[in-house]
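Open question from group meeting: does this chain pack into something compact, or does most of it stay loose? Before anyone orders reagents, we agreed to write out a predicted structure and look at it together. Recording both the input and the output here so the notebook holds the full record.
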Amino acid sequence: MSQNPLDKFKVSFTLKQHTPIIHFQSEQSGATLRSTELKPKLDRFLLKQVEDIPFIKNANGHRSLDYKVKIEAKTEMSDIETINSKNGKSIPNPLFFGNMGEGEKKRFSLASKIEIEFFSFNSEVLKAIRNNFEAFLAYTNFGTRQSKGFGSFYVKKPFDATVIKHKVYSFSSSANSWQEDIKFFYAFLRAGINTAKFRGIYAKAVIFSYAKSKNITWDKKAIKNYYLDNNGDIENQKLMRDLFGLSSSQSWMSYRRATITKDDPTKEITRFKSPITFKPILENGKMRIYFWADTSVEKILNKEFLVKFDRKSGLKLKTPTSFTFDDFFDFAFNLDLSKHIDSEYHNNDQYKKLVRMFNEIKESK
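C-alpha cells returned:
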C-alpha cells in the first residue's frame, strides 16, 4: 500500500486523559479537549521555548503558528449531578463550585481514547511540535480549574517530570480521593485547616509560620487587628495568602460571614491565578499528584491593595518585596509537623495524612 504523500506533513500522538475536564459545552456529547483551547496554549508555549520558530503576525501584532489540529476522542459524558448535585440537592465538589447556583451547568468529560494529529507544510513548525509536545502536556492542564488538576492529559507513556523546568514535588493519592487530597494539602499551605469540630484537626497555615519566620505579620492578623481590634497598623504587615492567587473577595464565616475584598487602586492587577499547578497522573490504578510553582509570583510582589471589611475601608496592605516559592517550599517541607500541630491531634487520620504527604514530598525532591 503506497504511502500518502501528505503524511510527511503530519505528526500524531496518542493521549491518555488522567483527570476529567470540566466543560462549558455541558449538553454536547463530544465535549472534550478542544483545538480552540489547545492551539493558542501550544502556540504560546512553542513561541517561548523554541528559538527562531517561524510565526505569523496579524494586523494587531498577535503571533501564531501555521499548523492545523485534528482531535478525535471517544468520550463518556457524566451526568450533571456528578459535579454539584445529588437527588435534586446541591452538594459541594471539593475543587469546583460553579454549578451551585443558577445558570448554565457544566459537566465532567472523560475520554477513553484520544488521538491528536498536527498538519503543517512548515517543517520547522512540525519539528518543534514533535520535539516539544510532550513537555507542553506535562506543563498544561485544560478546561475549568486546571491549576487544581482538572483536564490533565499526557502522551500515552510514563510521566517524565524532568521536562518541567521548575522544582517538581509529588505525593500519592487515589483515583477516588485526588480532589479531596489536593484541596486538603493546598488549604494547609495557604489558609490552614480547622476541622476539629468534625473530628478533624486544627492546623495553622504554613504561610503563616513562614511569614512569622521572616518577622512578617500576615494579612489575616493585620485585617483582624485593623477592623476588629481597632489597634491601627502593626509592624511589617503584608499580604501573604494572595501570593497563592489573588482572592478579590472572600467570606470569613467565623466573623458574622464578613466579606473581605481587595482592590488594586492602580487597576493594574484585577486577577492573579495561582502560580502552583497540580498535575495528577493515573498509572496502574494509582494517582500520583505532581506539583510545582512557576515564577509568575514576581508580577504581584511589592503591590499595594485596599482591603475592605464589609463596608469598612481604610486598610492598605502590600505584598512582600521579595518571595519565591522555592524558598517557601523548602521551609514548608522541612517543617516539624509534630510541633506545628498540637499533640492532641497526632492520632487523627488527617494528621497522619499530612505526615504521609510530607514524607513522600521529601523523598520526591
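Observations to bring back to the group:
The chain has two domains: 5-157, 173-364.
The radius of gyration is 23 Å.
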